[in-house]
Amino acid sequence: MLLSFTVASKEIEDFVLKLQIDGDDTFADLNRLIRETCWPGVPVPQPALFYVCDDRWHPEHIIPETGDYEHDSMDEIRLSELLEDEGQRLIYDFDHEAGRHLIMEVSNISYGQHADEGTCRHRSGEPPALVEEEAMPSVDSLLAQLNASALGSFSDEEDDEREEDFDGFNDDELDLEGFEISEE
Q1: Sign for the pseudo-dihedral over CA of 30, 36, 38, 39
Q2: Domains along the chain?
């Protein structure tokens, strides 16, 4: 069985992939194909997840890159085990923390055909970046934050509030009774 997928992104309107992969391959093989097609040679910042969804995009099966007590890993599940119909929908979650993903649909199933390895049949547009640029602070900004923490610096507003605490202070009004001061 040969599965064909159409892959798109809600972030980037003109990005579309058409992938083909054998039904006997695993979700890990599909994961590799997507990463090699979208982000070749780029280190992966976090593990991915596949969600096999119903026709309204509600997840029915979760397939993590690494298994846990509740879910089998991508290496353990063959595509043909969960994908049986054209039109089936999947979500490929590549940045779980930021809620970023690709949407996928099984566009064609060719029974009796097989492929040695998955291939990208068509690609248009640029895929979304693996890491959102806003999420990556600059080195200068990180150093400034570290210096501020290390020096215990205050903002201008906090400095003004601290000065107000001492406005009108008269040391003649200080009652030293109860304080023991020794001159040794």
Answers
A1: positive
A2: 2-129 (3.10.290.30), 139-167 (no CATH)
